[in-house]
Amino acid sequence: MAQRNSSAHHDIPTLEKARTGIAGLDQISGGGLPKGRTTIVCGGPGCGKTMLGLEFLVRGATQFNEPGVLVAFEETPEEMARNVASLGFDLKDLAERKKLSLDFVYVEPSEIQETGEYDLEGLFIRLQHAVDSVGAKRVMLDTLEALFSGFSNPGILRAEIRRLFRWLKEKGLTSMVTAEKGEGTLTRHGLEEYVSDCVILLDHRITEQISTRRMRIVKYRGTKHGADEYPFLIDEHGMSLLPVTSMELQHKVSNQRVPTGVPDLDNMLERKGYFRGSSVLMTGAAGCGKTILAASFAEAACKRGERCLFIGFEESMDQITRNMKSVGINFEPWIKKGLLIHRAWRPTQYGMEMHLLRIHQLIEKYEPSNVIIDPITNLITASTEKDVHSMLMRLMDFLKEKGVTSVFTSLSNVGEIAESEVGISSLIDTWVLLRYTELFGKRHRGLFVLKARGMAHSTQLREMLITSQGIKLGPAAALLAYRDREREPQLDHQAALPKSVRSKGNRRTAALTRRSSRGAR
């Protein structure tokens, strides 16, 4: 009996899905939109409804050999073609190759006479002709409100909406219908979300003068899906969606080691360097040499023939290239070879989700083995510490899943050791702390490894020297030697005094010592 039930369970058909080809959307929807069914895309103006529908059609025609039909009620096909040309979508070419059928239906509300016999039979005839002309598998209607703008009778309106959705489903067309958001409802009429099989809500919000678009799958019959809000970006390549990474720690690790770019620092890490695919944090006050230390790692990676992505929030590519030449690091040949990819933008240019999405896109595009972000503390100026911490945690998970070695620099207060400003030190595999040490009126740079997971490491404080040939680390006793050398002039000065003066000073010191001792008793 158990075996019969088990086989019967395996025979249950699952919901077929049509892939959208939109980065991230197929992931959160579990494989795409319901095949042969209707999906409603709702939201306010400017949130990307039409763009999502057009990309759904274009990707289907070009990537999955599923021709489509676009029926617009507000914009002509020519207007739409011009609007999406900047994204690399050539609707006119697709139409000439019978991959798309473009149709514009003009609806004038004043010309519609509502009677009990009025229906959408004329629209169905046009749709059927367009579907047959290209062998369409996908349909997009933009927008539903324009189609039903002339209906004031709720009974007729509801009946015709149901009939339209039923007709699309009976024809086996994977359909996407755009709709405007209503007051207190997902759609203007408050009915579409109930008769459709999938509902996607788009939102365009402004938080502290920073714009962010978000997507949420409100409803999806017959399958599990991501129900959270996901930020998305519309750029020259179309729409990109950023799913929240899995909270399960299942990424693979490597035992391979990569040099730090500073041989003396390698010696402090078992003479081998960092683990490949690990995360490294370099913290210190301003001027300690964090960027130079990170640049040394980038140069070493390029010399090995590995691609490195350097993301800066303070210095442009030309500026950091010029500055690094003063310490013997020349980025220009690696940039020309395409091994060093430098991108720089202000942290206030985007919100946290957009920063994360843009970094994702760069990593997917260039596939680097190493990533440097300099500095992460600047992100706090564009958001809260909590949001920055969440964004960096998700970024680290993504980088570890990709096996990318990551280096983050972080500005800390002078003398601060316990924590970086964004509170990610507990997530880091290797933490290198740079600090100043003041000895007798002089400031010296020091370096020590605060932690290094999975390896033995030196705990000594080493003097860090920034030379024209890069970073050099002095011996562990170097800073103590500075202290001794600072004392020598004082000792020589005492020796140069007359004996009577030295004796008088010694007797006075002894008297003060005896007086202090009696007071203690």
Report low-confidence residues grouped into runs of 5 or more: 489-498, 508-513, 515-521
Oligomer: single chain
Biggest sheet statistics = 9 strands, mixed
Helical residues, percent: 25-40%
User: Strand percentage, roughly?
Assistant: 15-25%
Tell me the total number of β-strands: 22
Radius of gyration: 33 Å
CATH architecture of the largest domain: 3-Layer(aba) Sandwich
* Cross-sheet strand order for the largest sheet: 5-4-6-7-3-8-9-10-11
Fourth-tier CATH superfamily name of the largest domain: P-loop containing nucleotide triphosphate hydrolases
Find the CATH topology of the largest domain. Answer: Rossmann fold
Q: TL;DR of this structure?
A:
This protein is α/β, with parallel strands linked by helices and 521 residues long.
